[in-house]
Amino acid sequence: MKYYYTLIVILCFFSCSKKEQTQNTASGNNAQKYEEVINELLSKMTLEEKIGQTNLRGTSSRAKTLSDELKQDVRDGKVGALLNVMRTEFVDELQKVAVEESPNKIPLIFARDVIHGFKTMFPIPLGMAASWDADVAKTSSRIAAIESSQVGVRWTFAPMLDIAKDSRWGRIAESPGEDPYLASILGKAYVEGFQGDSLNNATSIAACAKHYIGYGAAIGGRDYNTTVIPNSLLRNVYLPPFEAALRAGSATVMTAFNEINGVPATGNKYLLKDVLRDELHFDGLVVSDWDSVIEMIAHGFATDEKHAGELAANAGLDMEMTSKAYEHHLKNLINEGKVSEAQLNEFVRNILRVKFRLGLFETPYIDKSNEVNFYTKEHLSEAKKAAIKSTVLLKNTKVLPISKQTKIALIGPMAHAPLDQMGTWAFDGEKEHTVTPFEAFKTAQVNFKYVSGLTHSRDQSNTQFKKAITTAKEAEVVVFIAGEEAILSGEAHSRSNIDLPGAQEDLIKALAKTGKPIVLVIMAGRPITITNIIDDVDAVLMSWHPGTMGGEALHDILFGIIEPQGRLPVSWPKTAGQLPYFYNHKNTGRPANKEDYVAMYDIPIGAWQSSLGNDSHYLDIGYTPHFPFGFGLGYTTFSYDAIKVSKDTINFNEDIIVKATVSNTGKRVGKEVVQLYIRDVVGSITRPVKELKRFEHVVLEAGETKDVTFTLSSKDFIFTNNASVRAAEAGDFDVWVGPHAASGLKKSFYLQKK
Ligand code: BGC
């Protein structure tokens, strides 16, 4: 009876206060009321029930029946949240057991990896990062939330905010790329999209900023590998996107699989308590990654399951995903005094706070008031726009755009690969809804003939080469859709060689011999090294894994209905041996430069070891990437002129205005992503050679000129040094405005302390 009383009090409070709640995080009186209700609940819960809340139980989305054992565990209050329950009838049945039969009637949260779309698949996150467009991120995550919440998902494990500088790493596909500023803008937008205006809206789902932290710094790009990240680097590069996501109200955070400087992220008290809670004031819930609690045994950090539970608990991990160290041992650990009950209470508070914020106590069941709508016209149209905005044109010797009458040979293993086109983490997208380039060409009645040439990206046989070559000879232009299957990127799918797999390069070379112009389109989860074939093709378009509407987007781009609009969110390497590569590197004491560079084949045979060319480069591939960070062409050209800074010297409390003139020097309307970079020339620790600080999308008609103005303040120059001092430092600064990280007009100014 008393449980019913509690529930009635809670429901009354929430229905009365619903209108007031427009924020994802409660503040003031609301926050206070939450805490009171949570405390009341806590006072009624047994130790076992509290531990139950910390349990995120994994299930299989393919399960056809609901096990009695699972239902009983929910009934006994042993489960706090469930992962991958994908049948709506199971969601409601389990929720009913939780809110009607479990000891304290606490609702469950149903979680799913909704990463770049639910049914309607958007480009992979690295592709969306190439849009350099917060609206793309926000709209995609809003639509993903609308679609997935219809089947009961109220918690997604996204956005992934791991800065990634190594294209060998399979999970670069899920990342926002190599730059902390761009990643922060995207991180905020994803959270706003997933969580909507208010987390307790039926179409809002809780975001999860993951993987906290440094996961992308895995040595050698090998997934799950060790990371070594000094505190200054952590704060200057890896932390900012998480801070942005938390400021946007991300309800949850997931710990990473990796260790950092010898301590696994899941048992890392410094990161979870000192940084996340004390400094960043995060009051949502922190969940482990899949089994990452017990993986601390393999890391060599915990002796056994119980010890792993103790380490995670004392580090401040609220909820354990799939492994059962808390379920099996937390009670004993508390009884033995190794973990305090106050700590467990804190976990339960954090978990219940998120459940309250989601409105689950008030409306635990799936909202059936709306018709279930997947793949709506609007969703598909946004997915197409996102694919267009994500596509990066890397090379074009005037072959693009193609005129509609042109006779085309459509060739390549990704030209009609509906499953692979969706990319990694596309669990719920159905390939039957994917529009491939082949289908888009057919629908638009393009004058084309299709031969796949290779049945899949890893196909090593040349049996179809002859047919492909004949088709190319009969055509005027070859559109070759190359790439890698979805399964070759994503979790645990790192590659040491990131050339096109299988016999794709051989086929491209064979086709080049026909003398027909070749447009190479790449669909892949990472930058693909194309040094071997770049001279054999006339244009290169990177469409990443573009999602459901990738084919239509590509059709419109190829035929010039619209221009490709993406810019690289990562430096594009010449070879995998160059990795990790990132534009915002340090200068070194011997910076590479054109004058000193000595190429391998220019060194005289028998040369004695001199200091000739002794600077930081590779003998065989030099020191620049194939395409720089921020690079991307369109169908027109732009020029930059007349950069000005408002002052040569600024004080700490003053703004500086940087202005440049951008002109469309081509023959058609076009969009430029105008980028501003700075360099803090001398610091108490060395500073990167360039750092992105602002960008703006500018649309200009042919011949049009526009002034683009950016305002910076000393806040933009803040960094953390090795003494953990976080401040801007007085001194000289360079500033560039230009089209990418390797180009731009430069000015300098001085920041002075008065
Ligand atoms: C991944 C996470 C994911 C989790 C749940 C793990 O293997 O690292 O990113 O959210 O599985 O599916």
Main attributes?
single chain; about 750 residues; alpha/beta; TIM Barrel; Rossmann fold; Immunoglobulin-like; 3 domains; 6-stranded mixed beta sheet; 5-stranded parallel beta sheet; 20 helices; disordered N terminus; binds beta-D-glucopyranose
Q: Do you know the CATH topology of the largest domain?
A: TIM Barrel
Largest sheet: spatial strand order:
11-16-15-14-12-13
Spans where pLDDT lies below 50 across 5 or more residues:
1-27
**Whole-number mean pLDDT:** 95
Oligomerization state: single chain
What does this structure look like?
With 754 residues, the protein is α/β, with parallel strands linked by helices. It has three domains: 11-357, Glycoside hydrolase, family 3, N-terminal domain (TIM Barrel); 382-555, 3-Layer(aba) Sandwich (Rossmann fold); 638-752, Sandwich (Immunoglobulin-like). The protein contains 20 helices and 26 strands. The strands form seven sheets. Strands 11-16-15-14-12-13 form a six-stranded mixed beta sheet, with helices on both faces. Strands 4-3-2-1-10 form a five-stranded parallel beta sheet. A five-stranded mixed beta sheet has the order 18-26-25-20-21. A hairpin with a 5-residue loop joins β23 (719-720) and β24. α7 packs parallel to α8, α7 (134-149) packs antiparallel against α16 (377-390) and α17 (437-443) packs across α20. The longest helix has 17 residues, at 28-44. The protein is globular. The N and C termini lie far apart (68 Å). The model is unreliable at 1-27 (pLDDT under 50).
Sequence-ordered SSE layout with sheet pairings:
Blueprint: H1 2-17, H2 28-44, H3 47-53, E1 55-58, H4 68-75, E2 81-83, H5 88-101, E3 109-112, H6 125-129, H7 134-149, E4 155-156, H8 180-195, E5 208-212, H9 231-238, H10 240-247, E6 252-255, E7 259-260, E8 263-264, H11 269-279, E9 285-287, H12 295-298, H13 305-315, E10 320-321, H14 325-335, H15 341-357, H16 377-390, E11 392-396, E12 408-411, H17 437-443, E13 448-451, H18 465-474, E14 477-483, H19 504-512, E15 518-523, E16 539-542, H20 550-558, E17 638-645, E18 649-651, E19 655-664, E20 670-680, E21 691-700, E22 705-713, E23 719-720, E24 726-727, E25 731-738, E26 745-752
Parallel strand pairs: 1-2, 1-10, 2-3, 3-4, 5-6, 6-9, 12-13, 12-14, 14-15, 15-16, 18-26
Antiparallel strand pairs: 7-8, 11-16, 17-19, 19-22, 20-21, 20-25, 23-24, 25-26
Helix pairs in contact: 1-2, 2-15, 3-14, 3-15, 7-8, 7-16, 8-10, 13-14, 16-20, 17-20
The structure holds beta-D-glucopyranose.
Beta-D-glucopyranose binds next to loops.
